[in-house]
Design a protein that fits this description.
Blueprint (H helix, E strand, L loop, with lengths): L11 H4 L2 H17 L3 H18 L4 H10 L1 H14 L2 H24 L2 H12 L9 H31 L6 H29 L7 H8 L1
Helix pairs in contact: 2-6, 3-6, 4-6, 5-6, 7-8, 8-9
């Protein structure tokens, strides 16, 4: 698994401004929820796939990986709708969510994190009059985009290591033996990142230091 979400290409989508792509993503999201009909949702899903594979020249595996990541959630939602509402509503809901996931995947795969963070900081700049720090919001978003694939890779490594040792990967025992070491690694990673941010003066008065003085 690659750690970076960005897939370098020289396509028209890659050269488009990050703000325009994020605005298009918002427009598609609004359209899918305002006009939740099967023709509109199907058209949006086909359009997103064509833009990703043909216009943006992304590898099929890039979109397939994103779809696989939410596969079981989509199955669970469809089964829930089959019991609570009907199959048509379940199909429409699953296709709508899949279109949104793939649209977000196309945007993240064609846009560098630095460009997206810059857009978010510009959008949040007016909020600085009420004490909001746009740079802090941009930092949080950049860290989230960076650490989500990193955590997925750590989880894959743990499962591969357990499989190599012949460990159980299914059931409650398999879940416990996977979650506990992953949780330990997440805490260690968070501690390391916090120390690095403090060392670089990311916060004038770090939270942990304020807590220490209060104690």
């Amino acid at each position: 698994m690659t750690l970076a979400l960005y897939v370098p290409r020289a396509s028209l989508v890659h050269r488009a401004p990050a703000g325009a792509k994020l605005l298009a993503l918002v427009a598609v999201s609004v359209l899918l929820f305002v006009v939740p009909t099967l023709p509109v949702v199907t058209g949006a899903l086909v359009l997103v796939v064509l833009v990703g594979l043909v216009v943006a020249q992304l590898p099929v595996v890039t979109l397939a990986r994103q779809a696989r990541a939410v596969l079981w959630w989509l199955v669970a939602i469809f089964v829930l709708h089959a019991f609570v509402t009907d199959l048509a509503t379940g199909t429409l809901t699953v296709m709508r969510l899949l279109a949104l996931v793939l649209a977000a995947a196309v945007v993240t795969a064609t846009t560098r994190v630095s460009a997206m963070v810059a857009v978010v900081e510009r959008v949040c700049r007016p909020l600085s009059v009420v004490g909001v720090r746009p740079a802090r919001i941009g930092l949080v978003i950049a860290m989230a985009l960076r650490f989500i694939p990193l955590l997925i890779e750590r989880a894959d490594r743990i499962r591969e290591a357990q499989a190599a040792r012949g460990g159980t990967l299914r059931g409650l025992h398999g879940l416990r033996t996977s979650v506990v070491p992953l949780l330990v690694q997440v805490l260690q990673l968070a501690h390391t990142v916090a120390e690095a941010l403090d060392a670089r003066g990311a916060d004038d008065v770090p939270v942990r230091r304020r807590g220490a003085r209060a104690a």
